[in-house]
Write a structure and sequence with these properties.
Blueprint: H1 6-16, E1 24-26, E2 34-35, E3 43-51, H2 63-79, E4 83-95, H3 100-117, E5 121-129, E6 134-143, E7 159-162, H4 168-177, H5 185-192, H6 198-208, E8 212-215, H7 220-231, E9 234-238, H8 246-255, H9 259-263, E10 272-276, E11 284-285, E12 288-289, E13 291-297, E14 301-306, E15 309-311
Parallel strand pairs: 4-5, 9-14
Antiparallel strand pairs: 1-2, 3-6, 4-6, 7-10, 7-13, 8-10, 9-13, 11-12, 14-15
Helix pairs in contact: 2-3, 2-6, 4-5, 4-8
The protein binds magnesium ion.
Amino acid sequence: MKNWEELNLIKSIRSLVSKNGHNVLLGIGDDTAVVNTPAHEKLLYTVDSIVDGIHFLGDLNLWESAGKRAIGAATSDIAAMGGTPLYAMLSLFLPQEFPVRHVNAFLKGFLKRLKEYGMPLIGGNIATMRGKFAADTVVIGKAYRGKFVSRSGARNGDIVCMSGITGEAMAGLDLLTSGKAKRYPGLIKKYLEPVPMLRESVRIVREMSPHAMIDVSDGLLQDTLHIAEESKVGVVLDLDSIPVSEGVRYAARLMGKSTYDYVLTGGDDYVLVFTVPAQRYKAVMKGVKIHTIGRVTRGKGIRFYKDGKRADLKLKKLGYTHT
Ligand SMILES: [Mg+2]
């Protein structure tokens, strides 16, 4: 199929997007979108980029997955605040010579996820660029009953919790690029099509009222450090409590890495890390296991414990930083 053409592309996106959603007065097609603001709600705004060669690998031709990844990663920041997504906007940067079938596949994945999250696409932009494919996704959400959870509320004595397993996305990427993808297809999917923990997030806020929360995009250590720095506290992580899945062990053996390289510094997991006072902690919430991985202390930075003793860790890199 030939290259994309802006007006045709807009027309086709418009036809794929359902008629204006709830509270949307004007959607795609006008100069701006117009929405009714829910009364007395706190609105959350976030934007996230996806760039070919950095956040996904266009060479693999998995454009539908790239679309899911773009909206999944952007929406995860709403989950990180304990919020619910309401609307999305998409800004595409397309090289002049770019097959329209790739754009269509990207949109297919993107719009599929929007439907699952019950969030309409209310506008966007298409620009030509020199270079590779890139896209910005804006997600607008609302806080759960006016309560939002920032990175900065952690208090000395809180326990540090995690709503899932880290390291699997990076293990998936390693398996994918080393051609050993078949053994653990679930891990590859975790990397290619991350799913934000939206339901879990609202439950965590409702049932535990966490002091601070973040989604793990750069790696467990890096993102826990964000909480520590913003809250002006220290964190002690108990290395024996951090879950390591079978797939991560397999990838570590295969790649000659430590499992810590995956679970502590592998990025793109999009699980939630949060801090709560011990009396509010719940081990399982509607089938989701909540791991306790450490505690908040005075001071600053992150320290490690293993077998009940202070431990030093040498890691290949601190986090997977998207530049
Ligand atoms: Mg985030």
